[in-house]
Design goal:
The protein is of the alpha/beta class. Helix content is 36%, strand content 12%. The protein contains ten helices and eight strands.
Length: 245
């Protein structure tokens, strides 16, 4: 653990629990560029931790302080995500600079860091989220190459196992057929109206869901495979396991 203090933080609101863990990618050409930006007072952006590709962990903001990483966001009825979360930036150039798989040593270090955070704070598994989950209209990180299933197998977050891939055919398009899809997305935590046809907002949220839980097919469509995995995740999110950290 190395320390590189960022000035970009402030006090959390009184009596606010830290109950959410938000994972990002840096989306910059190098780790040093990301560290510079996250500690630049003019940028007004930061995270609590930055994790390099070789597994090196930097602490930028003390956990008891509010880092500025989430922006306009929503998860499970909450909008002040910065106030209630820990933010971890994972070094990866992202979609703009040559998106690539996350190295095994980086993922192992992330598991260790996340398990420490979950032990230290009342963060439930259903509140381990991607930046794209809490801001699907703006963000796509850490993206489809990030192995959320690996994290879940190692005690961090949720991932429904044993759901066969039913393919991308037979997408639901009617408002009536989409009602349970919307209900499941809301149950998982997304911000979405409870009724309506397939519109842009639903497609954005489905794409965010797919980046996290069905990276094989990021289509924004409610196809058979997506609906099956979403229904399984909705059930899992309601289980005692999901509420535990």
């Amino acid at each position: 653990m190395r320390v590189r203090p960022s000035p970009n933080h402030d006090a959390r609101p009184p009596a606010t629990l830290i109950d959410t863990l938000v994972l990002h990618y840096t989306g910059m050409p190098t780790a040093e560029a990301a560290l510079e930006r996250l500690s630049d007072p003019a940028a007004r952006v930061s995270s609590h931790y930055l994790l390099e590709e070789d597994g090196t962990i930097w602490q930028l903001v003390p956990e008891e302080r509010r880092a500025w990483h989430a922006g306009a966001s929503f998860w499970r009825g909450n909008t002040e995500i910065n106030s209630r979360s820990i933010g971890v930036e994972i070094v990866n150039p992202g979609h703009e600079w040559g998106y690539r798989p996350f190295p095994a040593v980086q993922m192992q270090a992330l598991v260790s860091l996340c398990r420490t955070l979950l032990a230290r704070h009342p963060i439930s598994h259903r509140n381990v989220v991607a930046h794209s989950d809490i801001a699907p209209d703006r963000k796509q990180d850490p993206g489809e190459l990030f192995d959320f299933a690996f994290l879940a197998r190692n005690g961090v977050g949720l991932f429904p196992d044993g759901i066969p891939d039913l393919g991308t055919s037979d997408a639901v398009v009617s408002a009536a057929g989409l009602a349970p899809v919307r209900a499941d997305l809301i149950a998982v935590g997304y911000n979405l109206a409870a009724a309506g046809a397939l519109d842009r907002s639903l497609a954005l949220v489905l794409s965010a869901f797919q980046r996290h839980w069905r990276p094989e097919a990021i289509t924004g469509a409610a196809d058979r495979g997506t609906c099956a995995r979403l229904a399984a995740l909705s059930r899992l999110s309601a289980s005692p396991l999901a509420a535990a950290g």
